């Protein structure tokens, strides 16, 4: 069997490793249009902000690793056309050489691309995006220039907030904008997102929320400022972090699509073409909250999708467990983690939701060092099944969100948490744990 994988970041790599390590007789061909593979983009802000020594550790594999396993791999080679009836494709190397490959099974793992606002001045020098390693290098180079002091960031999602911290750590004058009323609005309700907003401001970052970018301003071909619906701001560097859209450019009219253009797949990540799978950021996944296909672009989801697709190609039937969109962020000392849906997301998807908040110390009051923890559990009115959770603290409570992720996956109810077997030891928690107390405090009557 011959399997061709188009795209070799997290999803494609997971699929390739699963195939190559299976011990089965599988010919694997990998095609990558970029000059590198396996870049952990979530670490860009860490090395740009000089919180780690360099970027070498952000690459966890390379071309030689896969060649050693017997794969044929093309780097800096772009697929130009796929003939789904003939089960073949044509690609072109950076030198213009044409490559033709047939396949028994095709895995599309082309990922996502940054949303580029179509604003006047978009071609000015000094406007950046952040996804690829090379884009991180360009931002790092811009920060190294002492003439670049005013950094404007458009978009206050995870990447925008992280690069704002990085720029501030590099001594820049940082302003961040977002059309939403708070930062991190896709993941957190205002009561939690506003904690991050205040955290940014306490560290000297100017926040402008509920504000829309309208035009890039420039002189002599270089950006000098930004015009929004509320004002005009000087800029030496502008970084766009508005979000991502699926890069799903093949199979128009042949492969089914989701509403945002992503490939629509089943729970094995197979498309409507039995010989074609789509994985990672270019494809949908099954949401355990809505119980239907949804789109959440996260590296962890991408890895699992690659494993599941490859396992099915190898002949073992396996459905993905579904996703909750579990995520986390650490800015300065503040840590936010969440999984599932916020109240805002529940409203968007027509879910009748209630919530319970509980805030307490992590440890008993007699412990000399202590941290506050704020917890919200979102649950369905009537069934009481958990739909989401959000946690904020300066204490590292990140592993706790995995329990809530599993709870959503397994349809656990909020009232079940009230009697959950949770141990107590003063070094770790309180005897009346905030998880228990939230479960006991939840209003489980049907409205």
Strand order of the largest sheet: 3-2-1-7-18
Percent of residues in helices: 10-25%
Question: For the terminal residues, how far apart are their CA atoms?
Answer: 56 Å
CATH architecture descriptor name of the largest domain: 3-Layer(bba) Sandwich
Secondary structure class reads alpha/beta
Total domain units: 3
Number of helices: 11
Described by the principal axes of the CA atoms, the overall outline is globular
| C-alpha Rg (nearest Å) | 23 Å
Class of the largest domain, according to the CATH hierarchy? Alpha Beta
Written overview of the protein:
This is NADH oxidase. By secondary structure, the chain is an alpha/beta fold. It folds into three domains: 2-113 and 245-313, 3-Layer(bba) Sandwich (FAD/NAD(P)-binding domain), CATH 3.50.50.60; 116-242, FAD/NAD(P)-binding domain (3-Layer(bba) Sandwich), CATH 3.50.50.60; 333-441, 2-Layer Sandwich (Enolase-like, domain 1). The chain is 23% helix and 28% strand. It has eleven helices and 25 strands. It has helices spanning 10-20, 44-48, 63-68, 133-144, 158-169, 190-202, 299-313, 343-348, 400-409, 414-417, 434-441, and strands at residues 2-6, 27-31, 72-74, 77-83, 88-93, 98-102, 105-108, 112-114, 127-129, 150-154, 173-178, 206-209, 213-219, 222-228, 232-234, 237-240, 244-246, 276-278, 285-287, 292-294, 327-331, 334-340, 353-361, 372-380, 386-393. The strands form seven sheets. A five-stranded parallel beta sheet has the order 3-2-1-7-18. Strand 14 (222-228) and strand 15 form a beta hairpin. The termini are far apart. The model has no long low-confidence stretch (mean pLDDT 96).
């Amino acid at each position: 069997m011959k399997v061709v994988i188009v795209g070799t970041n997290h999803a494609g790599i997971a699929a390739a490793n699963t195939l190559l390590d299976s011990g089965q007789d599988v010919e694997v061909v990998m095609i990558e249009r970029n000059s590198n593979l396996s870049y952990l983009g979530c670490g860009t802000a860490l090395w740009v902000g000089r919180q780690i020594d360099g970027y070498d550790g952000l690459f966890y594999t390379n071309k030689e690793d896969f060649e050693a396993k017997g794969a044929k791999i093309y780097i800096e080679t772009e697929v130009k056309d796929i003939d789904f009836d003939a089960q073949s494709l044509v690609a072109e190397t950076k030198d213009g050489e044409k490559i033709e490959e047939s396949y028994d099974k095709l895995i599309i793992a082309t990922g996502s691309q940054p949303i580029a606002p179509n604003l006047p001045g978009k071609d000015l020098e000094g406007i950046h995006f952040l996804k690829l390693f090379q884009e991180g290098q360009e931002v790092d180079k811009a920060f190294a220039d002492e003439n670049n002091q005013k950094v404007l960031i458009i978009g206050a999602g995870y990447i925008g907030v992280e690069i704002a911290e990085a720029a501030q750590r590099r001594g820049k004058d940082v302003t961040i904008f977002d059309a939403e009323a708070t930062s991190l609005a896709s993941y957190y309700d205002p009561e939690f997102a506003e904690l991050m907003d205040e955290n940014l401001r306490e560290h000297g970052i100017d926040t402008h929320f509920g504000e829309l970018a309208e035009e890039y301003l420039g002189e002599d071909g270089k950006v000098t400022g930004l015009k929004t619906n509320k004002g005009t701001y000087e800029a030496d560097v502008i970084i766009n972090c508005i979000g991502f859209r699926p890069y799903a450019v093949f199979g128009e009219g042949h492969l089914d699509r989701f509403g945002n253009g992503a490939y629509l797949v089943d729970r094995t990540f197979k498309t409507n073409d039995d010989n074609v799978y789509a994985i990672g950021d270019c494809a949908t996944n099954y949401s355990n909250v809505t119980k239907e296909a949804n789109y959440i672009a996260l590296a962890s989801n991408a890895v699992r999708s690659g494993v599941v697709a490859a396992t099915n190609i190898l002949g073992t039937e396996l459905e993905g467990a579904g996703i909750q969109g579990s995520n986390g962020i650490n800015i300065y000392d503040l840590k936010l983690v969440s999984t599932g849906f916020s109240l805002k997301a529940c409203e968007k998807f027509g879910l009748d939701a209630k919530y319970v908040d509980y805030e307490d110390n992590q440890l008993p009051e007699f412990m000399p060092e202590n941290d506050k923890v704020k917890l919200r559990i979102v649950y369905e009115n009537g069934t009481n099944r958990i739909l989401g959770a959000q946690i904020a603290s300066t204490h590292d409570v990140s592993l706790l969100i995995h329990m809530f992720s599993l709870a959503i996956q397994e349809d656990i109810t909020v009232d079940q948490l009230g009697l959950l077997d949770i141990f107590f030891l003063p070094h770790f928690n309180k005897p009346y744990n905030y998880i228990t107390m939230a479960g006991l405090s939840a209003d489980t009557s049907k409205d």
